[in-house]
Amino acid sequence: MDEQALPEQLADIRDDFLALEVKTRLQLLLEFSNELPELPTQYADHPDLLERVVECQSPVFIFVDVDDDGLVHMFATAPREAPTTRGFASILVQGLSGLSADDVLAVPDDYPNSIGLTQAVSPLRIRGMTGMLARVKRQIRVKTA
User: What positions does the domain Fe-S metabolism associated occupy (predicted)?
Assistant: First the structure.
């Protein structure tokens, strides 16, 4: 992975996971799951604005906004009974929000494989996080075109 392309907050999250033993990484993922922010009212009241991430087994919905300064704001919702999926969504919300659109588009597509969870969760779950990242990038491309 190109270190230059990885924004500091995503690199920090990756390093936090990699500093732990594999079995402890799931605990950190659970902590991220509990930190997923609630949707702002304007999105909670309009579920039609949210995009379903069909790559995820659980019903995950995302919305990405790019403000006038070109900064990305990501919002996501996932059920509490799906802590792995919520954790992945939370990692992306925390890791991508506040970055420039160009910085998010430069994040390597395989970032989900780099955080050390491939031994702890199923490949299907990692694919779900990869799908979330791909949809975020697609929404940014549409909004900045």
Answer: 17-139
> Tokens for 107?
């994040």
pTM: 0.94
44-100 pLDDT tens trace: 888 888 999 999 889 999 999 999 999 999 999 999 999 999 999 999 999 999 999
pLDDT digits (tens, 9 = 90+) for 29-47: 999 999 999 999 988 888 8
- What single-letter DSSP state applies at residue 37? P
Torsion from C-alpha of 29, 32, 38, 43, nearest 10 degrees: -70
With tokens 């919305």, the residue in question is 63
The CATH number linked to 99 is 3.90.1010.10
How far apart are the C-alpha atoms of 59 and 110, rounded to whole Å?
A: 22
Cα 51 to its chain centre, rounded Å, is: 14
- The number of domains in the chain is 1
What is the rounded CA–CA span in Å between residue 118 and residue 22?
9
Q: Is 89 exposed, middle or buried (0-12, 13-18, 19+ CB in 10 A)?
A: buried
